Amino acid sequence: MCGIVALLSNQREICETSVKRSLASLHHRGPDGQKYWIDPTHRVALGHTRLSIIDLVGGEQPIQNAEGNLHIVANGEFYDFERIQHDLKRWGYQLQTHSDSEIALHLYNEFGTQCLHHLRGEFAFVIWDQRNELLFAARDRFGIKPLYYSCYGGNLYLASEVKALFAAGVPAAWDYESFWQSNHGILANDRTLFANVYQVPPGHFLLGSSSGVQLQSYWDFDYPLAHDSIKQSTPEDYIERLHHTLDEAIQLRLRADVPVACYLSGGLDSSAILGMAATHSSQPIQAFTLAFDNEAYNEETIARETAAYTGANLQIIPIRQSDLAENFADAVTNCEMLCINAHTTAKYLLSRAARNAGYKVVLTGEGADEIFGGYAHFRQDMLLDNQHGQDEQTVQNQLEQLKQTNQVSVGLLLAEDKSSQLLNGVQRLLGFLPAWIRASCAGHLKSVGFYSPEFIAQFAQHDIYRKFFNQIDVQGQLQGREHLHQSLYLWSKTMLPNYLLRMLGDGVEMANSIEGRVPFLDHKVVELVCSMPAGLKIHGLIEKYVLRQAAQPFITKTVYQRQKHPFLAPPSSFKPDEPLHQLIQDTLRSSDMSGVPFYNQAAIIDLLDQLPKMNASQLTSIEPFLMRVLSACIIHKRLKLT
Fold first, then answer.
1. How far is 63 from 74, CA to CA, in rounded Å?
2. Predicted structure pTM score
3. How much of the chain, in percent, has pLDDT values that exceed 70?
4. Where are the beta strands (DSSP E) in 353-437?
5. How would you label 112-127 residue by residue, b for 16+ Cβ within 10 Å and e otherwise?
6. Which single residue of 136, 199, 211, 600 has CA 20 to 30 Å from 143?
């Protein structure tokens, strides 16, 4: 992985100093080298900070073609690149490097923007096409790798992180509407929290020229229509196909010119990755596991059992509240989003430990919950859809079981509340309410009183859900699909790229110069899983059923039988005298808090005063809001926002 920067000017010459400043802000993404290219007219600049993983000696970027009229900077990995290199040579290309990045340059020369359909991996890249005076930028299908852009002062800016845009000269300011949307939990995948800063959405490419900027989709999930998702194969066939496709995705991601490690928790996803990866390694794989100082959140024992079962070496990284407090600001600043739990900081520390141990590449289990329906709210959608024709009492019993096992909160169940009024339009549009949208709306209503009256009044008449769904292809991607598939699709358009992949993936990994590879989000794996009937993903109360079956030979009995436990750090308020909770108290009572333009500080201070009177359930419920406010204070200060 690397950091990339691109500038295109239609009015004035690009300042070399701006390019250098932008690259310097991305040093953590690529500490092994830094180069840039500015065209002779000073209208185009491409910059690259390198984390050397493939072709350690000869893979520097930017790379140009033999004619010097195509230039590329790329962040990420293109898998199965050796096969494409062979094809390119057969077509007459003289490759200048042994790196995977160069293939995108020549595939573009052959196929134009259609080159994206030949690429497999996690990536963001920019190509300058001198012949056509066209800048072509693209992002992978799921948003594993970030790519931000801004049009300002007659220039088009693109970069791997928002702070690089600010360093290049884009003004640093909050986007008030995006902040309001994020409080609802449905920030669209082309928005950021910052004014005039956007994302190239996952599965899209951008074309920039003197005519302006154009965005175009090149991939989508394409879940089958409900009447087409009747089993086309037996469960055994689907299990075997998943085993083969996932195994191939893992094997491809083990290819590197540096050692590859695995992140390991007590869950099915990371355990399956490690177990299958071990079959392709002649040496024990190095695994890294977090250990929290709260037994209810500590998965060390299960991880040790998995490591022994797979023959892996295991390093345990103990995490204390003082560690989380000390590193919270750095983690959030690198992610450039608001967090809801200190798990972001824990993953930051996990990545730092891997880097300190000498690793640059890790395989992770992110993405499995988003394609197999791993979260409790997806099980609720499945139960209420009741596609298997269970009697109503059975459905209610299963919902009650979810509630009793703390997998679904009372607010998630079908009780009527104020959120129904806000969500009537969604109900009419889809014919049902995805459980996660109902929960997000309920969370917004609980926290709205802590925002300033001026901020609330500014958006009181806005229909946030209408704005979100205006960007969704409801007819083409949702209508006629099973409820579970609709819910999965919508989750993948906001929470997957904006939170899971940015906050728990790229942001905290690249802050420590670690490349995270995600086999579950190989597009061939995802396309196979999308085609499967919903009942193979969630079977009764068993989530990720088909994955459990495919991974069973590679995981322990403990992991096979264990239900989903979300990866979370213990709530800070459980230990009010510890440093993390003190950080919240001190920051939210300070002038740093009063400078953030969204909140009612008096109301928040009153909330802080009430915390000692709350029980564990109430403290757990309020933790995400407190973390969001703390994140906002830090981002406001660190990025010097106006």
1. 9
2. 0.95
3. 94
4. 361-363
5. eeebbebbbbbbbbbb
6. 211
